[in-house]
Amino acid sequence: xxxxTAKLRKRRAREAEAREARAANGAAAAQxxxxxxxxxxxGWQWACLGLLAGAAILRLFELxxxxxxxxxxxxxxxxxxxxxxxxxxYDPSNYHGPTLYYAGLVTTTVNAIFYGKYGLSTFAxxxxxxxxxxxxxxxxxxLRRQLGTFGAFSAGVLAAVSSxxxxxxxxxxxxxxxxxxxxxxxxxxxxxxxxRQPKYLFLAAASLAMLGATKETWIITVAVWLLALLCxxxxxYLRRRGREEPAAKRARPAPxxxxxxxxxxxxxxxxxxxxxxxxxxxxxxxxxxxYSSFFTNFPQGVYDSVRTFTYWFKTGRTxxxxxxxxxxxxxxxxxxxxxxRPGAELAAMALGFLGTITALAKAQSRFAVFTAFWSLxxxxxxxxxxxxxxxxxxxxxxxxxxxxxYFLQQMYEDWRLxxxxxxxxxxxxxxxxxxxxxxxxxxxxxxNQTYSYAxxxxxxxxxxxxxxRIAAGNAAGKNIGITVMANEHWPLPWYFxxxxxxxxxxxxxxxxxxxxxVHESQMSDAVRTLGDNYRLFSVHVLRPGNRLYLFxxxxxxx
Length: 558
Prior knowledge:
globular, two-stranded antiparallel ribbon
């Protein structure tokens, strides 16, 4: 009897061990399955990765090949001082905000780890805008919940191949950062509305502060947003008045696709007062941090960030390109000498207009209605301001791309139009891609191109190459003296940043340096001043209507 009992106990013990082993193996298998799933992408994620890769190629390929624009040269001078001397102070009368330069400090510092003092390169500074340009495409994809899968992907495609967004992603100026933070504020607010997680409201506050620290035109964007919100409320009320809203529409929005309900707080841990006070504190902290140049120019920089509007309101009243229809002509159609040619953003703008009409007519999505008013508001605001430049058009194009995605999603949801929506997106993408490649790689210095606004001619690089060749053949090397008398000379200070004895005077001055560079308008005075000691070596086009003449001292070998 005792032996039978002992055998039974042993058998039960073995069975228990076997169950524990199976459970352990099952848990291990589950962990392996979870680990594998983390490295397995859905079709949506693969599509997004492919799109972002394509956007990266357009923005990074031959990034340093294009000659710098005048404004890039000015920004490059600030970047040089910050990189070499740690000095940057915001100038309220011009040059815009500090975010571009501090972002550039990151890329140039990383580049300097590999290339030393040559970390301050054209590729390194333009990498800033290229990265933000790629990230901007990602932000459009983040609107999947608001636009739908096909709509968000369509908006991402149109943003990836937009000739303007590609062109200025390869430009060291503020505009791409500006539109990135603009859309960043919108996306962060949407995430907060969906999840009620305070971190997203704080992210929105930080993005708004970065928007303000990028460019003074933030005040136009915010004003349009506020008006769009008021118009949205009124429009939704008028369209829905007298109709009972379905219970599903009145319910609290579901979480975003990547947010599980379990992650939502069961109870709001912050009071409304605490939440908005903290968000305001985040905004002020980021604003002060950047405008004070990380407290090296405090409080003057913060004071200047407000004082700047006394200058910029005067700039906005100038008569430069004052035609009200200028942006529509640039973006939708161009008619040089009566010959119709499509505008720089014809596909996105046309689809965006259709999306705007659809959103206002249906009045089903509050976000779509808001973006419709945002689009029309930006077009009206920038059209009313007399001062116009092509890069400002990006603030108009951005919401219109969102509305284009909305329109294509509406078509896609109708089974009769689904195939046509796909074909329409493909056609718009191909046409825009051709324009983007043409504008950024082939015709970037063609004054007939919309975005090639007074761009430096590629012939300027021949002047730079000649100076470098002469310096290399001289015993002084890069310590050779260069007298730049030309009153129009940007972006030469960037290209001559490694020449400590290059002087920029902006007028004709006596000199004995081996090289002198003169503007065509100064030729008669320069020839008299230089006398018989110099000879004209070469002539180069700086930009339309501006030629530079390189003089070489006669005893210097070319």
